[in-house]
């Protein structure tokens, strides 16, 4: 018997949208046509995902004006220049302000296509069709769109919520193992920042999840989407608690930036960044050494890096961290652990704990 899709609502005051999670959704034309209501459709994907799944969208929207663009693959392509060919395609095809954009891909395509939608003719609607675990549990939800700048991650962008998120679990069958592991970093993030029960569950089921057990995957994706939907509903534009979703990201974004958005995947950098946050929290005495090790062990069991690359010194970390979007009045705000399953965003910490954590990169 086919499982019914799971549905998670993101409620933003009067506005709301659905995240639909299930196997085979890309073959459900009724759902696709329901979510994408416009007569003019622009699908954005990349050279890896497009050949695998774009045809499903093409055939679902054959009766409408349909245009598409497949960008080169990779995090380094998440930059302003990559948006131009997408705008060109939209203009050449005469797409009006009534068109809708579909982002078909991982977080890179989701963030970029979302920003295209936020800015094309001052803003059109878009639908997220995430194809990585990371995009299903995190980037497709919540409306953060944008691109990187050589001086910092996601430095140019806009809040622009999708009108729907369609997560077809079948597409994960073609996702490489390394990308699955990268997605698991954001999964572990939700547990550490605010969901202690989920942390216990993950510790018991991480091996099943890494083996792509279908029930475990569906449970994980729904649980993470519910967590994210609740945080985004409470603080859509990150004036407060949404910054908790940045656990591991102040360090992680510095790693990505210092490596030139190249060899370290976002999820890998965030994994190492979360371990740094755990070590710093332990140095501050906010969590015990045993709790720190529990967090790090889970990251390690997911096959993720637990250490930042040793060629990024404290000065380079600080250079990127000084530009972090969470900073206020020149103060470096960090997401740290007060307990497992209980993170806090604060600039109120002993700076020596940060210094020691940065100095120890490569040694611990
Ligand atoms: N907006 C947000 O809230 C948010 C949240 C988390 C991360 N992000 C951003 O997301 C990006 C990382 O996303 P990602 O990890 O999905 O990386 P990605 O988009 O680069 O995708 C990872 C790789 O998997 C390939 N791929 C995607 N789906 C596939 C499939 N089904 N089968 C085979 N290959 C597939 C892609 O072509 C790519 O090579 C980063 O830029 C990060 O900053 C944004
Ligand atoms: O949705 C959010 O809020 C997040 O912070 C989710 C993060 O996982 C994601 O990497 C996000 O893109 C980071 O945003 P930024 O504002 O720190 O650039
Ligand atoms: Zn992230």
Task: Please explain how this structure is put together.
- By secondary structure, the chain is α/β, with parallel strands linked by helices.
- It folds into 2 domains: 6-174, Rossmann fold (3-Layer(aba) Sandwich); 177-359, Dehydroquinate synthase-like - alpha domain (Dehydroquinate synthase-like, alpha domain, Up-down Bundle), CATH 1.20.1090.10.
- 45% of the residues lie in helices and 20% in strands.
- It is built from 13 helices and 11 strands.
- The chain has helices spanning 29-35, 49-60, 80-92, 107-119, 133-139, 177-194, 196-210, 214-234, 249-258, 266-283, 289-301, 314-321, 351-359; strands spanning 6-12, 15-22, 40-46, 65-71, 100-105, 125-130, 144-149, 152-159, 164-168, 334-339, 342-346.
- The chain has a 7-stranded mixed sheet, with helices on both faces.
- A hairpin with a 2-residue loop joins β10 and β11 (342-346).
- α6 (177-194) packs antiparallel against α7, α7 (196-210) packs antiparallel against α8 and α9 crosses α12.
- It is globular, with a radius of gyration of 20 Å.
- The model has no long low-confidence stretch (mean pLDDT 97).
- The structure holds nicotinamide-adenine-dinucleotide, the ligand O=C(O)C(=O)C[C@@H](O)[C@H](O)[C@H](O)COP(=O)(O)O and zinc ion.
- Zinc ion (ZN) binds next to α10.
CATH topology category name of the largest domain: Dehydroquinate synthase-like, alpha domain
Give the assembly state of these chains: single chain
CATH architecture of the largest domain: Up-down Bundle
Radius of gyration: 20 Å
Number of strands: 11
Small molecules held by this entry: nicotinamide-adenine-dinucleotide, the ligand O=C(O)C(=O)C[C@@H](O)[C@H](O)[C@H](O)COP(=O)(O)O, zinc ion
The average pLDDT is: 97
Summarize the helix and strand pattern as letters.
EEHEHEHEHEHEEEHHHHHHHEEH
Domains, number: 2
Tell me roughly what share of residues is in helical segments: 40-55%
């Amino acid at each position: 018997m086919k499982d019914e899709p799971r549905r998670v609502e993101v409620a933003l005051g009067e506005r709301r949208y659905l995240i639909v999670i299930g196997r085979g959704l890309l073959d459900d034309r009724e759902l696709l046509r329901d979510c994408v209501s416009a007569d003019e459709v622009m699908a954005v994907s990349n050279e890896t995902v497009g050949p695998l799944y774009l045809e499903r969208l093409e055939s679902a929207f054959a009766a409408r004006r349909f245009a598409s663009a497949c960008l080169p693959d990779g995090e380094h392509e998440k930059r302003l220049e990559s948006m131009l060919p997408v705008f060109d395609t939209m203009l050449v095809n005469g797409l009006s302000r009534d068109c809708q954009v579909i982002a078909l891909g991982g977080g890179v395509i989701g963030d970029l296509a979302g920003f295209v939608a936020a800015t094309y003719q001052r803003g059109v609607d878009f639908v997220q069709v995430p194809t990585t675990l990371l995009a299903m549990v995190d980037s497709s939800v919540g409306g953060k769109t944008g691109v990187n700048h050589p001086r910092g991650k996601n430095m140019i962008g806009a809040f622009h919520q999708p009108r729907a998120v369609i997560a077809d679990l079948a597409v994960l069958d073609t996702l490489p193992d390394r990308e699955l592991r990268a997605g698991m970093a954001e999964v572990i993030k939700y547990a550490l920042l605010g969901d202690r029960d989920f942390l216990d569950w993950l510790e018991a089921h991480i091996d099943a999840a890494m083996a792509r057990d279908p029930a475990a995957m569906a449970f994980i994706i729904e649980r993470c989407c519910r967590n994210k939907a609740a945080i985004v509903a409470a603080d859509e534009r990150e004036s407060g608690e949404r910054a908790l979703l940045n656990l591991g990201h102040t360090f992680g974004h510095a790693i990505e930036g210092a490596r030139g958005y190249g060899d370290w995947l976002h999820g890998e950098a965030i994994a190492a960044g979360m371990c740094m946050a755990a070590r710093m929290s332990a140095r501050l005495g906010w969590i015990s050494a045993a709790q720190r090790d529990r967090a790090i062990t889970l990251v390690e069991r997911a096959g993720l890096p637990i250490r930042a690359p040793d060629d990024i010194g404290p000065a380079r970390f600080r250079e990127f961290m000084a530009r972090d979007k969470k900073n206020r009045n020149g103060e470096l705000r960090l997401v740290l652990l007060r307990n497992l399953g209980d993170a806090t965003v604060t600039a109120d910490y002993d700076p020596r704990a940060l210094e020691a954590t940065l100095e120890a990169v490569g040694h611990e």
